[in-house]
Specification:
The complex is a heterodimer of chains A (324) and B (282). Chain A is built from 14 helices and 9 strands. Chain A is an alpha/beta fold and 324 residues long. Chain A has 2 domains: 50 residues; 250 residues, Alpha-Beta Complex (2-enoyl-CoA Hydratase, Chain A, domain 1). In chain A, strands 1, 2, 3, 4, 5, 6, 7 and 8 form an 8-stranded mixed sheet that branches. In chain A, a hairpin with a 2-residue loop joins strand 2 and strand 3. In chain A, helix 1 runs antiparallel to helix 2. Chain B is built from 10 helices and 10 strands. In chain B, a hairpin with a 2-residue loop joins strand 5 and strand 6. The longest helix of chain B is centred in the middle third of the chain and has 20 residues. Chain B is globular. The chains are: A alpha/beta (324), B alpha/beta (282). At the A-B interface, helix 7, helix 8, helix 9, helix 10 and helix 14 of A face strand 4, helix 4, helix 5, helix 6 and helix 7 of B.
């Protein structure tokens, strides 16, 4: 159950009512404009009340909202997207989409983690949880970007890499480890967009880049709140508490210096105005790329190394306080 | 009433754990083992060959030729999230320090293995389940960077449940940091050898664990991306025999070799010599 969808119910009712009145206003000779204005104001107030200051747990559900723009929504807003398929070893993983396109006039390679819109689509996309072959397809595209000197733009939206028998047999660990390694040394600009759920290593596997952009209500975490709760308290129902503690929101990640830029979302989340959010995200990608394209390959890779090198919170003790 | 016959008393009764100071029970065959003998036998069960988990310092003693110069020995976590769950993270760390005699879940340094100077990093599962937070990430990175400077090979012995929850996304970023160091190191033509021991999962297997030029798995080790419990809960079907064991990984092409603890130093020595000795001119 998505808590945001639940919260939205009175709002959706109100909006249906407004739409009905508007229709009446057009077809009947009675003037309802005053009532409509009042209801619209009420809807605005309600939105502000519900979404003005979402809690981390509500933001988890905004990130998972069934109507939230998905990777392909961003990718198809690019010019001339052509999908490239397969890992050349096992199969084509539908949880990862990849290909090339133009960002305005700039030729780029793209990789995205793709969830489904409905149950059938989600079964096909495996709920956006890639198998090893998905990451190996991504590695192919990364190497193409480097070889043909095209920037790489990625879109992160996954609960995590898939935990299953086949995934383990085919080396999920190796697939992620290798993706990380390819990205770390890739001699072309890499822009990362966290557009929905950034679920652990499965997200990071396409998440090492030169400029990390995060949508305001996306989340990025070491583990899903449910998984963290079941590890820490052996009780997945304490996910809300875990969400609070994990510091997985865009403002906190920006503060930590892990995210470079946050794209504001409309009141109520990206799904309230997908076109605007997609436009703003791609505009930010383009602006970041313009700066990065001025750097030499060496400067670019050095800069990326330093960017991740400095992340950590450790202190040097004066005395060894362990009991050895 | 007659006393319960022995055969009835035994049936179904769980063997009592014998974790006292002198005795240890084999989790695999249930044999009661005298601790002193067990330690002398490198913590391998004399009855079934089960490899017990090894403390980092014991592992270093097993692998190094007798020298070990520790790097960054005093690094400690800064508790970036000021985390608390059942108890504050700071208390957990303090408890682990008491129990393990270590400040953190990895010990790194320079040593020689069978005469080859090398960097050695060993993780300790008894400290926070060997999880990788800021300190583990930093120490592994420092080791790799130091070995890059000195042009030495690196051996990393893993034992880890993955990224450390209590440090949130900062722990996740240690995958990126250590990977970046390993990538640079690799580009210099220097060897990175990883030894995956029981257990190696999550963020450690999905970063430097599986970035080794040669990957060795210790006999019987559980190795995988997702933990068994997570897989069980996700797919709800019976897992294959030996799933995620070192031997299972070998069969599926995921590791180069499975090596018994008694053979490990020799295997590493031969590999290090092969990879680093000057080739004899033809």
């Amino acid at each position: 159950m998505n808590v945001i969808v639940e919260l939205e119910k009175p709002l959706v009712e109100l909006e249906t009512k407004i739409a009905g009145l508007k229709k009446l206003n057009e077809t009947q000779r009675v003037d309802f404009s005053a009532e409509i204005a009042a209801l619209e104001e009420k809807a605005r107030q309600l939105k502000l009340e519900i979404f003005g200051n979402p809690t981390p747990w509500q933001r988890v559900h905004l990130a998972r909202h069934p109507k939230r723009p998905l990777a392909m929504d961003y990718i198809s807003a690019l010019d001339g997207f052509t999908e490239l398929h397969g890992d050349r070893g096992f199969r084509d993983d539908p949880a990862v989409v990849a290909g090339y396109a133009y960002l305005d006039d700039l030729p780029i390679f793209v990789i995205g983690e793709q969830k489904g819109r409905d149950t059938k689509d989600n079964l096909y996309r495996n709920f956006g949880m890639p198998h090893p072959e998905g990451y190996r397809k991504a590695q192919r595209i990364m190497r193409l970007a480097e070889k043909f000197r095209r920037p790489l733009v990625t879109f992160i939206d996954t609960p995590g890499a898939y935990p299953g028998i086949g995934a383990e047999e085919r080396g999920q660990s190796e697939a992620i480890a290798a993706s990380l390694k390819v990205l770390a040394g890739l001699r072309t600009p890499v822009i990362v967009n966290i557009t929905g759920e950034g679920g652990s290593g499965g997200a990071l596997a396409i998440g090492i880049g030169d400029h990390i952009i995060m949508l305001q209500h996306s989340i990025y975490s070491v583990a899903s709140p449910e998984a963290a709760a079941s590890i820490l308290w052996r009780d997945a129902s304490r996910a809300e508490e875990a969400a609070q503690r994990l510091r997985l929101t865009s403002d906190e990640l920006f503060e930590f210096g892990i995210v470079d830029e946050v794209i504001p979302e409309p009141l109520g989340g990206a799904h309230q105005d997908p076109q605007r959010v997609i436009h703003d995200t791609l505009a930010a990608d383009k602006q970041a790329l313009r700066k990065l394209l001025r750097l030499s390959q060496e400067a670019l890779v050095d800069r990326r190394y330093e960017k991740f090198r400095r992340i950590g919170a450790h202190v040097e003790l004066v005395h060894d306080t362990a009991a050895r | 009433m007659a006393p319960t016959p022995n055969w009835l008393r035994r049936r179904g009764a769980k063997p009592e754990p014998q974790n006292d100071a002198l005795w240890e029970m084999c989790p695999s065959c249930g044999e009661r083992l005298y601790k002193k003998d067990l330690a002398e036998r490198l913590w391998i069960c004399s009855r079934c060959g089960h490899h017990f988990r090894l403390h980092a310092l014991d592992r270093i003693a097993l692998l190094a030729d007798g020298d070990f110069h520790e790097l960054a020995p005093l690094l400690a976590t800064g508790d970036p999230l000021t985390w608390s769950d059942r108890m504050p993270y700071a208390n957990k760390i303090a408890g682990d320090r008491q129990k393990s005699g270590l400040l953190e879940a990895v010990v790194v340094g320079l040593c020689t293995i069978e005469g080859v100077r090398t960097g050695l990093g060993v993780m300790d599962f008894f400290f926070r389940g060997g999880t990788m937070g800021s300190v583990v990430g930093e120490k592994v990175t420092l080791l790799i960077e130091e070995c890059a400077r000195q042009r030495l090979p690196v051996v990393l012995v893993t034992a880890s449940g993955g990224a450390r929850m209590e440090e949130g996304v900062i722990a996740l970023m240690q995958l990126a940091k250590t990977t970046a160091a390993a990538e640079r190191f690799s580009a210099l033509g220097l060897p990175l050898i990883t030894v995956l021991t029981d257990p190696t999962t999550g963020g450690v297997s999905a970063s430097f664990g599986f970035q080794g030029d040669v990957i060795i798995a210790e006999t019987g080790a559980a190795i995988g991306f997702a933990g068994r419990r997570v897989i069980d809960q996700t797919i709800r079907q019976k897992l294959p025999e030996g799933f995620q064991s070192a031997e299972f990984l070998l069969e599926h092409g995921q590791v180069d070799m499975v090596v018994r603890r008694t053979e490990l130093k020799g295997a590493l020595g031969r590999l290090l010599h092969f990879l680093t000795d000057k080739a004899v001119p033809a």
